[in-house]
Write a structure and sequence with these properties.
Largest sheet: 6 strands, antiparallel
Helix content: 40-55%
Distance between the termini: 53 Å
Number of helices: 8
Structural class: alpha+beta
Order of helices and strands: EEEEEEEEHEHHHHHHHEE
């Protein structure tokens, strides 16, 4: 039987339910399980009973903790969860190293000075005053297809970085749900932070006119964050260093307070404002 887990934040379920769980405690190198919880009543998946999962990353939320669990009188279930009458938590289940790196990266996104140029753009960039000017230049340089594909470039680069065999190994080892959780968390954090900053920068302009540009800039940031997370997911695998460096250079643009549209023949098209 697959291992069972409970996903909690502050001792309570982060996906429904208000019960305060008895948490296991570590004594030396050993874990002392929490107390047994018993549900008295009809068991019904997603409605009544004590719910557990075999895929904890499917329920991942920031600041959550995974606990290995033991259960008796297990009722109905599906491929990701089940309901039981009697459950206790055995010990905390640590996140894999690559996911810890992803969490640190996601946390760092809140410290970026979004769209607050540091005044020190890199010489190798192709720098433009606005995103629109960068789009026009990229269009002139390589055509509409490259501009339209800019949002997907990060994902494509990550797949290339992993390579067919290495990429498959990473996804299998980590689990699709874990990869999705890390990618979604990073994408949301970057998109929301960039969107907030872009809205603030656009307040002087007519809001209706600025809205499309705000959304586009946020999607640019989301793409860069998603690429970096995919690189982190492949930690420990043989990756071509040029792809790792490519991801770092893309994120460096954002960390320096500029926006990144795309790259054309290896040259980053960067903009100062939306």
């Amino acid at each position: 039987m697959k291992k069972l887990y409970k996903v909690l934040i502050g001792g309570r379920s982060c996906n429904g339910g208000s019960m305060e769980w008895s948490l296991p405690k570590k004594k030396g190198r050993e874990w002392i399980p929490g107390q047994w919880h018993v549900f008295d009543g009809e068991l019904r998946l997603c409605h009544f009973g004590l719910h557990l999962t075999t895929s904890p990353f499917s329920w991942y939320k920031n600041d959550c903790v995974f606990y290995e669990a033991e259960a008796t009188e297990i009722g109905e279930g599906d491929e990701k969860k089940c309901v039981a009458r009697k459950v206790r938590l055995l010990k905390e289940s640590p996140f894999p190293d690559w996911f810890k790196d992803c969490k640190l990266f996601i946390k760092s996104l809140s410290k970026i000075a979004w769209f607050k140029n540091d005044g020190r753009p890199l010489k190798e960039w192709k720098l433009f005053e606005t995103r629109e000017a960068a789009v026009d230049a990229a269009w002139d340089a390589v055509g509409a297809a490259a501009v339209a594909a800019a949002g997907a470039a990060a994902s494509d680069a990550a797949r290339n970085a992993a390579g067919a065999a290495a990429g498959a190994a990473a996804w299998d080892a980590a689990g699709d749900a874990a990869v999705d959780a890390a990618w979604a968390a990073a994408s949301d954090a970057a998109r929301n932070a960039a969107s907030d900053a872009a809205r603030a920068a656009a307040r002087a302009a007519a809001w209706a006119a600025a809205w499309d540009a705000v959304g586009a800039a946020a999607r640019d940031a989301e793409g860069a964050a998603a690429l970096e997370v995919r690189i982190l997911v492949c930690k420990g695998l043989k990756l071509d260093k040029k792809h790792i460096e490519h991801s770092k250079k893309r994120m460096e643009v954002w960390r320096k307070g500029y926006g990144l549209l795309c790259d054309v023949n290896g040259i980053l098209y960067v903009y100062k404002a939306i």
